[in-house]
Amino acid sequence: MVQHLRLSSRFSVTCVGLAFALTSFTMAVTAPAAHATDLVQITTCGQSVNADAILMKNLTCADDGLAITGDGVTVDLDGHVIRSTTGTGRGIVLDGPRGSTATVRGPGNVKGFQTGIDALEYLGFPPQPASPYRHHLIVDGVRLLDNMSGIQVLDSLTDVTASTIRGTNGIGTPGGPSSTASAGVVNLDSSSVKSTGAALQSSLGGEMYVRHSQVSGGTIYQGSNTHVGVADSTLKEVRIYAVDGFIGIERSLMVDTSVSLVVTGGSFNDNVIRSTRGGVAFDDGSGGYATSFEGNRFSGWDNAIQIASSSSRVDITNNRFDHNVTGILTQCSSGAIRSNTLRSNTGDAIVLGCGQWAVGGNRMFSNGGSGINATGLVQVTDEGGNIARGNAEPQCVGVVCLSR
After folding, report:
1. How far apart (Å, rounded) are the C-alpha atoms in residues 218 and 156?
2. pLDDT tens digits, residue range 83-111?
């Protein structure tokens, strides 16, 4: 029996160590707000606070907006705006001791800065080994608009809920795709990120989890043993580059969103994956983890799943492919293609170029090419139960197909 890699089980291991952080996150967000008279009042640009504080008015700043220098500090934006006049500087800077927690709570806007929230710095050197993260940043109900980068983090735990990030870059590390820095752990929940650059970015063992959120435009970039998990979310016009590590996407809507897997692997379950302009939905050249596709629906792609030369197993099971050019295109790789339905694609439904594949129980109807075209150097284990009807002749090549 084929063992399919599941997002929930794969990621449960990586999340065990975060229980303490998620607990503190819930307490921080749900704790009752203090009265304004009990809080430090923020009234000027560049002000530093080391205790709970409230923004008393809109701020228009030529440089940094404000700095949080203490541990356990909550800044309440109280519906106000911190705005840059120069497009430089940082809206809010986390500059507390290593391992400190800071909360930025809305409603409120941070707008037009080089970086909306900067969590790259910490006081104290050398680093304290007992502190696993530079910071624990909590952003709740905040709008980070038109900044070059919404949130920049380094080796931190970042929880973003009910927030909007719109700008060139969303959440990640400095230095672009070639950066060797880790964002640490990022949890994006019930929020939206819209970007033209890097929507989410991390490497060197970082972890990013997107739940009940919308990501549109830009790229999601992962590298150097990074884990990325997406669940119950919408991805629109996003390019995902997974160059090392593991990526899992489940129960999500992906529109004009493509995934490139290189020396990596993943689990893709129960998604709707649509294109309005063709292209390749999944380009898998992984040589690390195994990759599985189960219960997905693909439509509108040139090649819905394209498997290049891969040393790892690929399992494609119980998916549906409608109105693509080719549903499944494989080269020199191995795995199983079972119980898929491919209907009304304009080319061959399944093309097996080379490698070793177990094929069984697939259904191919009314495709413009053959139902299954297994030619060349491919070694096929025909498990039977393949049905092909209404496709171009021959209905199947290299695999026995029944008409009913």
Report:
1. 23
2. 999 999 999 999 998 889 999 999 999 99
Residues 6+ apart with CB under 8 A from 53: 39, 40, 41, 42, 73, 74, 75, 76
Q: 3-class DSSP state for residue 165? A: strand
Task: Tell me the C-alpha distance between 100 and 91, whole Å.
Answer: 19
φ and ψ of 20, to 5 deg = -65, -35
The structural domains of the chain, ordered by start, are 7-35+77-397 (2.160.20)
pTM recorded for the entire structure = 0.87
Task: Give CA–CA dist 348/394, Å, rounded.
Answer: 11
Question: How would you classify the pairing of strands 90-94 and 40-42?
Answer: unpaired
Q: Does residue 13 surpass a pLDDT of 80? A: no
Q: How far apart are CA 286 and CA 305, in angstroms?
A: 13
Nearest by Cα to 75 from 86, 97, 62, 91: 91
Residue type, 145: L
Cβ count near 314 (within 10 Å): 25
N-terminal to C-terminal alpha carbon distance within the chain: 25
CA angle (399 as vertex; 262, 388 as ends), nearest 5? 100
Asked which of 26-35, 195-204, 364-373 is least confident by mean pLDDT, the reply is 26-35
Q: In a 10 Å sphere around its CB, with 0-12 CB exposed, 13-18 middle and 19+ buried, how is residue 365 labelled? A: middle
User: Mean pLDDT across the chain, nearest whole number?
Assistant: 87
